[in-house]
Amino acid sequence: MNYNKKTVRDIDVKGKKVLLRCDFNVPMAKDGSGVITDDKRIRAALPTIQYLLEQGAAVIACSHMGKPKGEVKPELSLKPVAVRLGELLGQEIGMAADVVGPDAQAKAAALQPGQILLLENTRFEKGETKNDPDLAKAMASMAEVYVSDAFGAVHRAHASTAGVAEYLPAVSGFLIQKELDFIGGALANPKRPLVAILGGSKVSSKIGVINNLLEIADTIIIGGGMAYTFSAAQGGAVGDSLLEADWKDYSLEMIQKAKDKGVKLLLPVDTVCADAFAPDAKSQVVRAGEIPDGWEGLDIGPETVKLYCDAVKDAGTVIWNGPMGVFEFPAFAKGTEAVAEALSKTSAITIIGGGDSAAAVQQLGYADKMTHISTGGGASLEFMEGKELPGVACLLDK
Q1: How large is the average pLDDT for residues 352-370?
Q2: For the chain, is the Cβ count within 10 Å smaller at the N or the C terminus?
Q3: Active site residue 378
Q4: Peptide bond preceding 292: is omega within 30 degrees of 0, i.e. cis?
């Protein structure tokens, strides 16, 4: 995939209407009060929005929220986002009552340079997730340029993430540019040694990533629940630990492929196991592959922590996706904490691949020590698999 895409800096937007795809899929209070519980994604969009306004563009922003499945659901309206965005920018934000209906069309037509209009939730339209060309055309007809800045949605070919690029010149905003520079750079031309740390519960969800990284990484570190499938594949006892029995052969293939390619594949040497999946469960440290019946592995053990932390000390680039254990339980968060701390101390370029690892790094207070934290869990995974991302492929090449 070509990562070298045109950005907002490469085009002239003065006096033009810009359709800007943001990721305003923010968490809301469960009580239906319309209170945004975390505005990080809104803040992340500000640099691109401010740049467009400074350059004299009229900005028509759009985003999805939740999964309304083509129905209008008032609790998933973007109205609270318009209010918060207005507070952060210190200016009034126009809000359309629909996506491409008469209200959106009229307000977009009247929009002046320096003003912002927010369209209603794109997924209120049935055609959004189907990438319906009529919807894409209707959205595109309101603007003269398309700017994509919703990295969390670029792995999906929807009308607002890919379809509109058929009808308008399409470039990236600063958020996507940063993702392409960092993750794209780490995959295409990494500062070596390149160390990939992969955790999380399932081997099946990381297969493509392991396979692709075996072609480019110097070291791959495996932690989290998926380590027990590797352990069982090698004849180890894993007790009641997470196990994907169907993926044992695949795990052995990966171990062999790493040997053939000269890639160091590090697996846990010891495990913290518990007698129940609970925060206050009884726990003990055992050798990897020696988990007693009735016990389950919930974290990497102290020797493994040391091994993994040593492996990132002299790295040039580290990519991390997926926690080392059940970090939601403080007793079983030590492996994830130690890795986060080791990454905060290394001089390597550190890239956190969204999702749970991003949450862990933020929760543990190491976020400002990382070079780059991806804004898209699923998108960054598919990116690391080497898959083409439709919302990036549709942008103009430099």
Answers
A1: 88
A2: C
A3: yes
A4: no
* pLDDT confidence tier of residue 366, bands split at 50, 70 and 90: very high
* Distance separating alpha carbons of residues 16 and 12, to the nearest angstrom: 8
Question: Using CA atoms, how far apart are residues 181 and 93, in angstroms rounded to an integer?
Answer: 31
**300 pLDDT tier (thresholds 50, 70, 90):** very high
Q: How far apart are CA 392 and CA 154, in angstroms?
A: 6
Pick the catalytic residue: 355, 376, 377, 391?
Answer: 355
- The total number of residues written for the chain in this structure: 398
Place of tokens 């794209």: 184
The one catalytic residue among 5, 17, 41, 206: 41
- pLDDT bin (cut points 50, 70, 90) of residue 365 is very high
Distance CA 113, CA 30 (A): 37
- Paired with 299 in beta bridges are 272
- Across residues 52-68, what is the average pLDDT? 97
Q: Where are the alpha helices (DSSP H) in the chain?
A: 40-54, 79-89, 102-110, 133-140, 174-179, 185-188, 207-216, 227-233, 248-261, 302-313, 334-345, 355-363, 377-384, 390-393
| pTM, to two decimals | 0.86
Residue 222 backbone phi and psi in degrees, to 5: -110, 125
Q: pLDDT (tens digit, 9 = 90+) per residue, 138-170?
A: 999 999 999 999 998 999 999 999 999 999 999
pLDDT, mean of residues 74-98 = 96
Known catalytic residue at 202: yes
Place of tokens 């950005």: 7
Q: Of the residues 6, 202, 257, 264, which is catalytic? A: 202
Are 88 and 80 within 8 A, CB to CB? no
**Tokens representing residue 281 in the block:** 């469960």
Q: How far apart are alpha carbons 92 and 88 in whole angstroms?
A: 10
Q: Which residue has the tokens 């001089």?
A: 347
Confidence of residue 2 (pLDDT cuts 50, 70, 90): confident
* 371/182 Cα distance (integer angstroms): 9
161 forms beta bridges with none
Q: Rounded mean pLDDT of 234-242?
A: 96
